[in-house]
Amino acid sequence: MSTVGKKRISAKESAEFLGVPYATISRIDRQGEIIKRYRLGHKTHVYDLESLEAFLDAKLVKPIPLPPAQPRSRRSDVAVKVPGEQKESLRDFLRRSVEEARERERLSEKK
């Protein structure tokens, strides 16, 4: 295989060239039909610049625009108290619910 006239670039440079996130460069054209990828080490790959240009010419990938930065809102630590009736405690609510259930049970037994 001749490397004359070909330039190989790193994955990070390839991602910048295609306009895609660095993490997705290995997923694009995984079968290697258009993009020629060569293994340099255990996990290191270099990409052929001409094949990247051919991939862009085929318009198989569209550069992903960065999402606009959303303003982050802080969570309020202040509890809002609404004037009005006081809620009963959970203990009182459960006690009342149990008493009502027992009363219904007694009434159903009498019938």
Structural write-up:
Helices cover 34% and strands 9% of the residues. It has 111 residues and is an alpha+beta fold. A three-stranded antiparallel β-sheet has the order 1-3-2. The longest helix is centred in the last third of the chain and has 21 residues, at 90-110. The chain is elongated. The chain starts with 7 loop residues before the first strand and ends with a helix. It comes from Paraburkholderia aromaticivorans.
What is the strand and helix layout of this fold?
Elements: E1 8-10, H1 11-18, E2 37-39, E3 45-48, H2 49-57, H3 90-110
Antiparallel strand pairs: 1-3, 2-3
Instruction: Indicate the radius of gyration in whole angstroms.
Output: 33 Å
What is the H-and-E element order? EHEEHH
What's the overall average pLDDT, rounded?
Answer: 77
Helix/sheet category = alpha+beta
Protein name: Helix-turn-helix domain-containing protein
Organism: Paraburkholderia aromaticivorans
